[in-house]
Amino acid sequence: MKKYLILFLMIIALSSCESFLDKTDPTATTFQEFFVDEDDLRRVVYSTYLDVFTNRDDRRLLFYMKDGRTDNAYARSEGDHHQRIANGTMNSNTRAFEYYWTIHMKHIGRLNTYIANIDVPYVEDEAVRQRYKSILEGLRIWHYFEAVMRWENIPFVLEPATIEEAKAEPLPKAQVLDSLFGMATEIASRLPEGEYTTDKYMFNRNSFKALIMRYALFNERFELAAQLAKEIMDSQQYELYHSYRDLFQYEGDARNREFIIHMERESVGNNNTTSFRDLGPHFRTGGGESQLVPLKSLIDTYWTLQGRPIADCPLHTKEEYELNPGLNRDPRYSASIMGHGDTFYGEEIDIYNANNPMYYENQRASKSGFWFRKFVSDADAFRSGTLTYGLIRYAEVLLTYAEAKLMLNDFDDLAKDCINQIRRRAGLDMTVADITLPAYSSYTQQQWIDLLRNERRIEFAGEGLRYEDILRWRIAEEVLNQPALGHTRIVNGQKVSLKIEDRSFLPFNYLWPFHQTVLRVEPDLRQNPGY
């Protein structure tokens, strides 16, 4: 990995983090001067999270923006990369793939150096050193999980490399994953069991287990996913917050036991967060830019208050639901989405009125006529926001256990209760939506799969999980070969939906290409088929 794993220690170690250079000796020019005490260890861990995983400002990395790669949403700016991934206008020269490969490899290289030199800094308590070491090793695993999911067969290097040593043969994905899951289990056992009072975003034992659980599910290691989910449930450290709507607003963002990895203020250097800018309507301020907006495909996925698909409801027709998305709908719809006819900051949204600031043809308006309400507070309409988020939350643990057990053909009472907990908290009519009722007793395996996948889609809408889901379920060829549509109305007696763009997904797009620049630097890499 001649370019990306060569460790330019001062350049890499001192990059990206706004507060990272707040040191007693800002004139340090060597690694030995820089990496000397416990504060240095903390800064290294902090910046490694901030540069990639808790980045508050780079839309290429922000977790909610990743829904723009899917049938859930449309990402407005081509330069953010998500739009091109969703519409299929990509190849081995698409800059996105150099960007993401570089950022993961750069951080893996830097982490290899810090971990190898973990005994250098002076600390008064050796337990502190071991905690930071475990967190750094966990972050390295997180980068590798992301890289192997995107490119499959990759080099796997765990030591600092010289120019001569940096070049490494790619290993098969299965072999890399075996190593990662084995290492991850051992690291989890070394992490402190409880959450920290400060720096809550840093891994503890259960939050790192939740991360391993996520990638175990993504990679069809269902036994491990179910086991870890059960261990997290049994820890009783987390619970569903009572209000789904408030969980993503100021009322609940910092007052819940649902967020397992919490993208809190400390994780972004106590700076403002940008969800209103990215997701909110332009309204009467310059704050909202509608960078990511929901699509009709997602809107129609919200089932009814009784937990039925809108095409199978005896109360209203599918067309009635399409024309009136708030009609008899799962309450997670109004908690997550707003659009034509809804109210924002005391004013009715009219996307077809050219005098309305949210007119759909305005430059910063929503091309779909919908916006995410999740992560968007009216209070931020005239200010910079400080709303914080959960990168992994307890609801994911419950639905992971249910899915893993279903795929293991062991869909037990606890798995069904996990789904019921999610539905009950959402506010569904459990006299009909309770999946232990006789109406569900004749469900086939495929019906359960459809139900669970839909629960997962609407529960995590706008939270960045949909892209992995459509890839691992192998449905991307179906859902991303449909046009991106928006609000639907009757025009001259015909049902018409706003059209944003056509999309395309080819069979080989399940993997990303290596950028041509990367291949020139790394001749041992093999381009993924189709590119």
UniProtKB/TrEMBL annotation:
<dbReference type="Pfam" id="PF07980">
    <property type="entry name" value="SusD_RagB"/>
</dbReference>
<protein>
    <submittedName>
        <fullName>SusD family protein</fullName>
    </submittedName>
</protein>
<keyword id="KW-0998">Cell outer membrane</keyword>
<comment type="similarity">
    <text>Belongs to the SusD family.</text>
</comment>
<feature type="signal peptide">
    <location>
        <begin position="1"/>
        <end position="20"/>
    </location>
</feature>
<dbReference type="GO" id="GO:0009279">
    <property type="term" value="C:cell outer membrane"/>
</dbReference>
<keyword id="KW-0472">Membrane</keyword>
<keyword id="KW-0732">Signal</keyword>
<dbReference type="InterPro" id="IPR012944">
    <property type="entry name" value="SusD_RagB_dom"/>
</dbReference>
<feature type="domain" description="RagB/SusD">
    <location>
        <begin position="261"/>
        <end position="531"/>
    </location>
</feature>
<dbReference type="InterPro" id="IPR011990">
    <property type="entry name" value="TPR-like_helical_dom_sf"/>
</dbReference>
